[in-house]
Amino acid sequence: MRMSTLRVALLGCGVVGSEIARQMVEHSDDLAARVGARLELAGIAVRRTGRDRAIPGVDPEIFTTDAAALVARDDVDLVVEVIGGIEPARGLIMAAMERGKSVVTANKALLADDGFALHTAADKHGVDLYYEAAVAGAIPLLRPLRESLAGDHVTRVLGIVNGTTNYILDQMDTHGSGFAEALEEAQALGYAEADPTADIEGYDAAAKAAILAGIAFHSPVSLADVHREGISEVTAADVAGAKAMGAVVKLLAICELAPGGEAVGVRVHPAMIPREHPLAGVRGAYNAVFVEAASAGQLMFYGPGAGGTPTSSAVLGDLVTVARNRVAGVTGPGGSWYADRRVRPMGETVTRYHISLDVDDRPGVLAAVATVFAGHGVSIETVRQRTEVPDGAELVVVTHQAPDEALSATVDELAKLDTVREVMSVKRVEGE
Amino acid sequence: MRMSTLRVALLGCGVVGSEIARQMVEHSDDLAARVGARLELAGIAVRRTGRDRAIPGVDPEIFTTDAAALVARDDVDLVVEVIGGIEPARGLIMAAMERGKSVVTANKALLADDGFALHTAADKHGVDLYYEAAVAGAIPLLRPLRESLAGDHVTRVLGIVNGTTNYILDQMDTHGSGFAEALEEAQALGYAEADPTADIEGYDAAAKAAILAGIAFHSPVSLADVHREGISEVTAADVAGAKAMGAVVKLLAICELAPGGEAVGVRVHPAMIPREHPLAGVRGAYNAVFVEAASAGQLMFYGPGAGGTPTSSAVLGDLVTVARNRVAGVTGPGGSWYADRRVRPMGETVTRYHISLDVDDRPGVLAAVATVFAGHGVSIETVRQRTEVPDGAELVVVTHQAPDEALSATVDELAKLDTVREVMSVKRVEGE
């Protein structure tokens, strides 16, 4: 039997794209055996062509700066998009799908921004849209959530999905360094970009959280629905304070079903988690995600969250699937939004706070502080008073669970107390 | 649009089967939304019918003792097999597939014994055969290996895939108990069966290893190919010895590609792993599996490895997939054996040994022992001599990497040395 050939347009040829092209050549026979058809690079769209583009086994003639024309070509069956960002990626993907081409992308920003519209277009045109690489790099996560757990009831997804911030927080925890110092080191080592905003302000993690929540809870969730706080305000004192209570500060993405199941909560923020929690042990730029489901219980997925080679593994895994579907003349499970749950505002989220207060060192302070908590219905778990602070005292309060709006209103009122000189730090406590 | 209905025959209604039936009723709407068709229980085959079979929402009339007739019924579209064991499960599955019904099973013994023939039959009859629940309970593992990593090159799968033995070894490590005592406790708590042979002698783990190796390396591997050693010979002294060198004893399933990639090694045996290794921290009856792939790097999958509810999650996830495929008129990726690698004999496996010897306490002993190692080309990493042993000495040798046949020949010769009174323990060292 002569094997048919599927022709692939690769959009983008940076670190990830060139790795994909390289592997498509190197593992050509394996990929063909797994797909049931040969995969051939029809063209590679780049911003600038030039001789530095040489990839062994790839015809230099197939590079082009006209991505739109490449996507429109009749001899292109499948499109792999690794340009990133919203435009021109969105337009190219839409154009590809309109012409009946299945798409594999690693584009988290786009999927988080517009996943619903993209999936709707994929359904309409009868094509596949796969994007495992968009969340947690090489870790198989979206497919297990979408398919392996399709017979279960996912209640929570909680994880470390941004390697840059995890590297920075890990450095702060291990070496006691400050945020600026740790960021500088991460930049020097290539773990953080020159403009680190997307990572350190939590935008990258929030995009991933939106994608995860949408899939886990069968409801449309976009980036705008995600409560987002970054790590740029995390201080060496916060990390030390966490250490003192046997915890570690991590940037968490948390997607959860509200009790009753009618709403979804999606948030990204730094949180203290106990040192015994498996996520506490996730070092450097690794990613790890917990999934809690009614029947399966607690599952954890762990691995490298970024990098050209891991990302290419995820993209090529998707490419094999969409190619195999194309050979069979079918599409895989598309977007699933039937539950259509509302997104709960952050204020309704039930969590715990760890609050450090710089207070006057005199009788009655604790009573005043406790009164504020009681007034908002927030129950205190522990209070620790450190009087060795020069000219005053430090009060560290850890609360029981309460709605975020009550906790946050408590903090606002504490800040106004005469006896409270400064609210030094407020961190949520998770993972218990 | 009126939704079509797919009718499901459930074979077996023990812990797992009754949980599946219960959830099919309880989550009927969710499952329908995910499949695109309603799933309906057509019949449940049991050994004995009776009123103790009552499952809320399930018509008692659909229970039958005639599994063969149920499978043959024209109004059955899909078959779920949770009887376990080789026969009658094999015959029923074959009959179902011959009649064009897709099958979901949790049957590791059968798949390990005869996976190739079963997949061949599935392909021939154009049906699906899915069995995520057969390995590591609820942990999505087979699907990620088969699909998510389809664009990558898996080099190693290493994990804890039997909860019973992990519970026993964990008890021995935590409380210093002996094997018999820990087994008895596991039995009392329901973690081990009255006849614990399949678990403690490694048959269960070996079946899972065969399945994992076949999928990971695209080659037929059956139970008979797996080198298997159980944990019944693991003593409190072994566990203490491991502790002394900062390690812990775990029953590991290891599937690896030989250097060069032309052969596959598959083995199950107790091994010492460093306490810092993530698998060392897997407690109780949990399972965890490392997957190493050329591009993805090291991935870990962790979760409950057994139990009715977790297993039902995996079965129902597969059921959604095969049902959805049936609606679309297609089948998913079937067995993939194109690489057809040979299985390497255990002797060729490269590993390390930890050997405890009871020796005479006199000069020249170490020289004699070292000569034996050298004669087999086995390089020693560390030797520790404990002379506080009454009337003699204990010599603990940890080797560098060497082929298992050289290591095992070394041990045989050591046992014959005049100065060696007893070879007290031999354990492989892995995970470094």
UniProtKB/TrEMBL annotation, chains A, B:
Amino-acid positions noted as binding NADP(+) in the UniProt annotation, renumbered to this chain: 11-18
NADP among keywords: yes
Binding site for L-homoserine: 193
Positions of the ACT domain: 354-431
Residue numbers annotated as active site: 208
The EC number(s) this enzyme carries: 1.1.1.3
UniProt record, GO biological process: methionine biosynthetic process; threonine biosynthetic process
PROSITE patterns for the chain: ACT, HOMOSER_DHGENASE
UniProt keywords, alphabetically: Amino-acid biosynthesis, Methionine biosynthesis, NADP, Oxidoreductase, Sodium, Threonine biosynthesis
Superkingdom, natural source: Bacteria
GO molecular function, one term: NADP binding
Xref: InterPro entries: ACT-like_dom_sf, ACT_dom, Asp/hSer_DH_NAD-bd, HDH, HDH_cat, HDH_CS, NAD(P)-bd_dom_sf
Pathway annotation from the record: Amino-acid biosynthesis; L-threonine biosynthesis; L-threonine from L-aspartate: step 3/5; Amino-acid biosynthesis; L-methionine biosynthesis via de novo pathway; L-homoserine from L-aspartate: step 3/3
The keyword DNA-binding is assigned to this record: no
Function text: Catalyzes the conversion of L-aspartate-beta-semialdehyde (L-Asa) to L-homoserine (L-Hse), the third step in the biosynthesis of threonine and methionine from aspartate.
Family under the similarity heading: Belongs to the homoserine dehydrogenase family.
PANTHER family the record matches: HOMOSERINE DEHYDROGENASE
The name this protein goes by in its record: Homoserine dehydrogenase
